[in-house]
């Protein structure tokens, strides 16, 4: 089976983890700090906070921006459930904004329309979580303008988009957001096994995030409510969590980060090759907007059932039967039973549902060989039956 995604681990990665195993610190040591500095440097952001996974990163980001009972956040229905779940963890409410049928990202027009209506009802969101689907940034300049006009904060869910660029600047620079979240799950662009990072330019949020990922505890006397009792002393200032990344994971991440540009370049080459090889197929190919350099976490095609002898479901299962490990990203979150139980209705975000009925993610990863890609293309041709 050719999978839809796969990590690449080399000798240098392995040796960097072994070195940590032989060192004094397995967690809360110097490599985590080095990794954070390296990510912040890569993204051109002032600060980076590493955590145990991107779901934890989203949760802490929501908390840091004050989400709690009575507050509201919006996101895209075309995302992994972790994005809206992280809002619900805080006790806040979540709602969705439908997607753009070309980029599959949150639709700027739908967002503006929904904001106008929300303002009239005095229910403007406190936070927006745009998701950079498949590795291409949302229209952040325009969204940022709206955030100033309507007064909401922005957390970028860039789980797919480490190594991507927007307006020639790295995603994660937080030029148009308060916080930006990356995932280092093995299926993403670079990996730490499990892991996530939050980047920001705001010192206040950075200090808070550092405490929240480690029980809400500080050892910094400047932040304490009274004079320190002694050198052993710490204070808990908030209800935090144990969301720390280990030294082993940070070492792997630091080593992987060195090859990030190479990974993303190869993914772009694969995407370019798909675009050429598939151009005469009766399918819809991905659209990358001009301001974007995508990290191509995913290469999504859409089946046109009117031009194809088989249904979307049949094409998908035929591909799997013939050794192509396709996937579908994503089932619109509002259609999940849990979200249904919260009152969301099928049909309320039609563009995301229409997309879901047609989408298939083809294999794209650093080690995918041209010959394997050719097999994907040939198999797809047969499965489409056209
Ligand atoms: C993978 C992913 C997450 C969650 O990442 P984890 O590191 O597995 O917690 C969140 N949002 C999106 C869009 C993702 O793809």
Provide structural commentary.
- The chain has 386 residues and is α/β, with parallel strands linked by helices.
- It has two domains: 2-257, Type I PLP-dependent aspartate aminotransferase-like (Major domain) (Aspartate Aminotransferase, domain 2, 3-Layer(aba) Sandwich), CATH 3.40.640; 260-384, Aspartate Aminotransferase, domain 1 (Alpha-Beta Complex).
- The chain has 13 helices and 15 strands.
- The chain has helices at residues 11-21, 30-43, 54-64, 82-89, 108-120, 140-150, 203-212, 247-257, 260-277, 312-321, 337-341, 350-356, 370-384; strands at residues 47-51, 72-75, 93-96, 127-129, 153-157, 165-166, 169-170, 179-183, 196-200, 217-218, 235-236, 283-284, 292-293, 299-303, 359-362.
- The chain has a seven-stranded mixed beta sheet, with helices on both faces.
- Helix 6 links the parallel strand 4 (127-129) and strand 5 (153-157).
- Helix 3 (54-64) packs across helix 4.
- The longest helix is centred in the C-terminal third of the chain and has 18 residues, at 260-277.
- It is globular and about 75 Å long.
- It starts with 10 loop residues before the first helix and ends with a helix.
- The model has no long low-confidence stretch (mean pLDDT 97).
- The structure holds pyridoxal-5'-phosphate.
- Pyridoxal-5'-phosphate (PLP) binds at residues 53-55, 79-80, 82-83, 131, 157, 159-160, 183, 185, 196.
- The site of pyridoxal-5'-phosphate (PLP) has 14 residues, from helix 3 and helix 4.
């Amino acid at each position: 089976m050719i999978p839809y995604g796969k990590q690449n681990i080399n000798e240098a990665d392995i040796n960097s983890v072994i070195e940590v195993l032989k060192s004094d610190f397995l967690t809360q040591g110097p490599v985590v700090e080095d990794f954070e500095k390296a990510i912040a440097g890569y993204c051109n952001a002032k600060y980076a906070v590493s955590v145990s996974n991107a779901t934890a990163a989203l949760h802490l980001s929501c908390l840091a921006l004050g989400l709690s009972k009575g507050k509201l956040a919006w996101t895209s229905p075309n995302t992994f459930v972790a994005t809206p779940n992280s809002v619900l963890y805080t006790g806040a409410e979540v709602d969705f904004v439908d997607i753009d049928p070309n980029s599959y990202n949150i639709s700027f027009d739908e967002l503006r329309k929904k904001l106008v209506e929300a303002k009239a009802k005095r229910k403007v969101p406190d936070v927006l979580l745009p998701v950079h689907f498949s590795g291409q940034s949302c229209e952040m300049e325009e969204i940022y303008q709206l955030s100033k006009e309507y007064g909401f904060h922005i957390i970028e869910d860039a789980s797919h988009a480490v190594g991507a660029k927007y307006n020639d600047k790295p995603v994660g620079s937080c030029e148009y957001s308060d916080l930006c979240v990356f995932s280092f799950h093995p299926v993403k662009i670079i990996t730490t096994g499990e892991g996530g990072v939050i980047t920001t330019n705001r010192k206040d949020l950075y200090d808070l995030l550092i405490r929240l990922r480690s029980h809400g505890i500080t050892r910094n006397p400047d932040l304490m409510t009274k004079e320190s009792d002694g050198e052993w002393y710490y204070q808990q200032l908030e209800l935090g969590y144990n969301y720390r990344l280990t030294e082993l994971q940070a070492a792997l991440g630091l080593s992987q980060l060195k090859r990030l540009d190479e990974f993303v370049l190869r993914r772009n080459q694969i995407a370019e090759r798909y675009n050429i090889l598939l151009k005469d197929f009766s399918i819809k190919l991905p659209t990358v907007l001009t301001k974007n350099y995508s990290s191509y976490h995913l290469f999504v095609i859409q089946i046109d059932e009117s031009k194809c002898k088989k249904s979307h479901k049949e094409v998908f299962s035929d591909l799997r039967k013939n050794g192509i490990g396709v996937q579908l990203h994503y089932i619109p979150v509002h259609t999940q039973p849990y979200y249904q139980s919260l009152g969301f209705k099928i049909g309320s975000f039609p563009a995301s549902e229409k997309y879901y009925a047609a989408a298939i993610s083809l294999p794209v990863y650093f080690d995918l060989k041209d010959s394997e890609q050719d097999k994907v293309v040939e198999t797809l041709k047969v499965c489409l039956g056209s």
